[in-house]
Structures are given as C-alpha cells and as structure tokens.
Specification:
By secondary structure, the chain is mainly alpha-helical. It has helices at residues 2-10, 14-31, 34-50, 54-71, 74-90, 94-111, 114-127, 132-138, and strands at 153-156, 162-165. Helix 2 (14-31) packs antiparallel against helix 3 (34-50) and helix 3 (34-50) packs parallel to helix 5.
C-alpha cells in the first residue's frame, strides 16, 4: 500500500492519496504499528495540504511529529519539519517556516542527508524571493547553485524519498 500511496502523490492524485492514507492509518491502528501510523499521518498531511484542507494537514503533521519524536525517528521528524515549513511558508507564516526549516536542516545534517539540507535551503530561497543576499543570512554556508527558484515544491516522504510536484494552493 505504501508504494501505491507514494505513486498517487507522485502522480498528483491527491484525492486518491488522501483516501489511501486513511486506509493506511486504519491498518496501522489494527496492527498497533506506531511507525506506520506516523508515516500514514505524514502522507495524509501532505495530501491534505495539496487539497487545501489546511487545518487537517496541520493536525496530521502534529500527530506525525509527535509519533516520530516518541519513536526517536529523526528522518521522519526532519521530513515533517521540512513539509510543515513549506506549508507555513505558503501560508505566509515566515517566522514559523524559518524555525521549522532550520530544524529540518539541522536534523538532515545530523543524518548526513545533503539532499534534505539542500531542500531546506531551496525552501528558504522561495521564502526570500530567490535573493541570494537574504538567503545567505538564513544559511551562510550554502552555494549560489542552491539559490535558483523552482516552480514546484519538493516534499519529503516519511521514508526519506522525495516527491516533486505542484505547490499546494492556499486560496
């Protein structure tokens, strides 16, 4: 089911992904698998954000973050922080977005995940309108090659894979 869910998100079939993530939550509860539950909440949050169900997205991000914290899963915490930071960015909550992106970058750095760190910098770049001087204040050690603006977002899945797609609409 994970592969089908990931494929639905990759295809931008967010209604399908939302429904599948609900079924995955049910399976996680039935088996008592808290790691799977955290992953399902992460997928559900990503899908809800893309469907502009923002309150639901935030609630599922909170649940995923709590579970990953309890399970001591830094990759999951980093992915949640990155995705929630991107959502906060889209909603105009720049203080929260910056805090979450910095936390995600720190966690990715501890894990040696350079791609994750780069995604955090790219998200910060979008926050600062692709101005290298502003981004350099956010993270001085990044190179200008990371400062190009992208038309689509990169979202981390709980397993550490990356999905590129359109950014969620916030209207």
């Amino acid at each position: 089911m994970r592969a089908t869910l990931h494929a639905a998100i990759s295809r931008e079939a967010y209604d399908e992904a939302f429904e599948l993530s609900g079924r995955l939550l049910g399976l996680a509860a039935a088996f008592g698998d808290r790691s799977l539950e955290a992953e399902a909440h992460q997928y559900r949050a990503v899908s809800a954000a893309r469907l502009t169900r923002l309150a639901e997205a935030k609630a599922h991000y909170r649940l995923a973050e709590r579970l990953y914290g309890e399970l001591e899963r830094p990759q999951g915490l980093a992915a949640v922080s990155l995705n929630r930071g991107i959502l906060d960015l889209r909603l105009g909550d720049h203080a929260s977005a910056t805090e979450r992106l910095q936390r995600a970058e720190r966690l990715f750095g501890q894990l040696g995940d350079r791609r994750g760190e780069r995604s955090c910098t790219e998200a910060a770049t979008r926050r600062h309108g692709a101005r290298p001087s502003a981004v350099s204040r956010w993270r001085a050690t990044r190179t200008t090659s990371c400062w190009r603006r992208r038309r689509s977002a990169t979202w981390a899945t709980p397993s550490g894979t990356w999905v590129r797609g359109r950014t969620p609409s916030t209207t």
